[in-house]
Amino acid sequence: MVDSHIRRRTVFSKLIRGRSSLLGITIIAIVVLAGTFAPVIAPMSPYTQVLEFRNQKPGFTGEIILFRLTPELPVQTVAVASISKKGEMIQYQDQLNRVFEIEKNKLEGVEEKDWHKKYRYWLGTDNFGRDVLSRLLYGARISLLVGISASTLSLLIGVILGAISGYYGGVLETLIMRLTDIMFGFPTLLFLIGITAAFEPTLTVVFFAIGFVSWPGMARLMRGQVASIKESEFIKVCEVLGLSKPRILLKHILPNCFAPMIVTYTLGIAGAIMVEASLSFLGLGAQPPTPSWGIMINAGKDFVRTAPWLSIIPGIAIASTVIGFNLMGDSLRDVLDPSMKK
Amino acid sequence: MVNFIVRRILQTIPVLFGVIVITFILMYMVPGDPVVSMVGERYDEETIHKLRKELHLDDSLPMQFVHYVSNVMRGDFGKSFITGGSVSEELLIKFPNTLILAVASMIVAIITGLTMGIVSSLKPQSILDKITMFFALAGISAPVFWVGLMLILFIGVFLQWLPPTGFGGIEHIILPAITLGLRSAAYLARLTRATMLDVLNQDYIRTARMKMLPEWKVILKHGFPNILIPIITVIGTDFGSYLSGAVLTESIFGWPGIGRYALEAILKRDFPVIQGTVLFMALMFILANLIVDIFYGIVDPRMRTEGKNG
C-alpha cells in the first residue's frame, strides 16, 4: 500500500516536471474547465440566433433586446442600433435606422440587464448570427463527453476480452483473437461511417460506434500483457495457494497491467475526439444545431472565403485538445513504462 | 518461405469471411424496406413483388447471405438504388483516381516524414529537433478535413498558388496529396526519429564512426537501412488505408475517387452502393496488409514463425 502510494507520487511529480506533459495537462485542464463551466463562462446560449449579425468578424460588438410579443411565443432577439425609454414604452432603432416601439411588459425579465444586452463577440458570429465563442465552449462538452465515454467503453470491452483470452486461452482466445483480426480488417473510419450510415446519426450512435469499433487494439495489448504476467513467479505462488482464477485475474494480474491500459486509454480519448469531429463534419454524427466542433467546421466551410474564422477557430480547438491528450498519453508512457514503445 | 506465404494467405480467409458477414449484417439492419426505397413514390404491388424476388428478399436470412456471397464472389456488388448502375463497374472507374491520390500522398509522406525524422535524430533535444517533433505532433493531432480546408483557404484562395479544388492536371493533386499524406508524414517522422536514435546507439555505428567515416555516410549507409523494416510496415499499412478511400480528403477537394463515391451514397442513403464500397474498401485494406505481412516475412525471417497470431 505504502509502496504504491510512493510510486503514484513519483509518477505525478515526474509528470509535473516534464515540460510536454505539463503542456498536455494544462491543455486538458483548460478544455475540461471550459466544458464544465460552459453555462457560466459562455456569454450567451450557443443556440441564440441574431440574424442581423450573421458572419461578423471576431471582436464585433452588437446590441440586442429580448422580448416576447405574446407569452406563448419563444423569446425574440432583435439587433438594435440604439434604444430610448418613453414611459411604459421602449423605443428602439433597428439596424436600418427604422424606429419601433414596444411595451415594457413584453420585454424579457424585469431589470434592464435582462432584456437589453450589449455583447462583444470575441470570436465573431456564425452564419446564423450565433456567438462562436459560446458554441466553442459548449462544443468542448460534446468532444469530452464523446471522447471520454467512447474510450471508456472500448477500454471495458478491450480489457475484458483481452484479459479473458490472455488468461484462459484455448477456444475462447482463438475466437476473440479471430474477431479482432476481422475488426482490424476494416479501416476504422470507414467502419464507423458504415455503422453511422446504417442507423440514424446521433451522438449516442457515434459513442457506441466508436466504443465498439476501437476495442481490438486494447484487447490485443491486454492479451499479451496478461499472458506474460500469468507466467511470472508471484502468480504461480497465488495458484499454489489455491486462489480462484477470477480472483487472481482481477486482484493480481490486472493491477499490473495498469500502465499500458492508462496509456492506451488516454491516446484513445484523443482518437475518439478526432473521430467524433470527423463524423460530425461528414454529417454522420451530431446534428445541427448541436455545437459540435466538427459541425461548426462543416457549416463554416461554405463561408471559408468570406468568414474564414468560422472554420479556423473550431479546428484549432480540436487540434489543441487532441494534442493535449496525445502529449499526456506519450508522457504517461515515458513515465510509467519506458520499455513500452510502439 | 512458400509455406509462410501460403499460411498467411489462408489466414486471410476467415477475416475475409468475417468482413463479408459484417457488411451483410450492417445493411440488413438498415431500417425500412430496400425495395420501397428503390421504387420510391411509384408504389406498385407488381413491381415490388418482382423486385423482391429478384433481390431474394423473401428468402430466409441464411439464403440471402448465400446469394450475397455468391454475387460478391462473381464480382457483382449490386446495383445502385438511384441510378440503377452496377456498383462494381462504378468502383472500377473511380478506383484509379483513388490510387493516384494514394501514391501522390505516400510520396509526400515519405519525403517529408523521413527527412524530418532523420534531421531530428541527428541532434536530439536540440531546438531543431523540438520544433520538428512539435510539427509532427500537430500533424498527428490536426483533423484531416480541417487541414484540407486550411490549405484551400491559404494556398488556394489567399495566395492563389494552386487551384483550391477540382480534378485534372498535376496542380490539382498537390493540395489533396499534402492533406492526405500529412498524418503519415507526421507519424513517419516520429517513428524514424525513435528508431534512428535506437540504431545510432548500436555498436556497429560506433565502429563505423571509429573508422573515421564521414557522418553522412554513417547515417545513410549504416544507420538508415536498419530502420527500414518498421518504416516500410507503416508505409504499407497507411497505403492500404489510403486505397480504402480517403473519404474526408476526397470529399473536401471534390476528388472523384471511391471515398467520395461512398460518402455521396451515404448522404443519399443508397444502401447497395454503401455496402459495395465498404466491402471493396475493406478488401483493399486487407490485401494491402497481407502484402505488408508477406514482405515483412521475406525481409525478417523471425516473423515467419511468429506469424501465427498476426
Silhouette of chain A: elongated
Sketch the major β-sheet of chain B: none
Oligomer: heterodimer
Distance between the termini of chain B: 16 Å
CATH second-level architecture of chain B: Orthogonal Bundle
Q: What is the ordering of alpha helices and beta strands of chain B?
A: HHHHHHHHHHHHHHH
H/E topology pattern of chain A: HHHEEEEEHEHHHHHHHHHH
Number of domains of chain B: 1
CATH superfamily assignment of chain B?
A: MetI-like
Helix-strand makeup class of chain B: mainly alpha
Biggest sheet layout of chain A:
3 strands, antiparallel
**What is the helix fraction of residues of chain A, given as a range?**
55-70%
> Which structural class is indicated by helix and strand composition of chain A?
mainly alpha
State the CATH topology of chain B: MetI-like fold
- If strands are numbered along the chain, what order do they take across the biggest sheet of chain A? 2-1-6
Helix content of chain B: over 70%
| Mean of pLDDT of chain A | 87
How much is the radius of gyration of chain A in Å?
A: 26 Å
Q: Could you describe the 3D structure shown?
A:
The complex is a heterodimer of chains A (about 350) and B (about 300). Chain A is mainly α. Chain A is about 60% helix and about 10% strand. Chain A has helices at about 1-15, 20-35, 40, 110-115, 130-170, 170-185, 190-200, 205-215, 215-230, 235-240, 245-255, 260-280, 295-300, 310-335; strands at about 60-65, 75-80, 80-85, 90-95, 100-105, 115-120. In chain A, the strands form two sheets. In chain A, strands 2-1-6 form a three-stranded antiparallel β-sheet. A three-stranded antiparallel β-sheet of chain A has the order 3-4-5, with no helix packed on it. Chain A is elongated, with a radius of gyration of 26 Å. Chain B has one domain (about 85-310): MetI-like fold, CATH 1.10.3720. In chain B, about 75% of the residues lie in helices and about 0% in strands. Chain B has helices at about 1-30, 35-40, 45-55, 60-75, 85-120, 125-140, 145-160, 175-200, 205-210, 215-225, 230-245, 245-255, 260-265, 270-300, 300-305. Chain B starts with a helix and ends with a helix. At the A-B interface, helix 6, helix 7, helix 12 and helix 14 of A face helix 1, helix 6, helix 7, helix 12 and helix 13 of B.
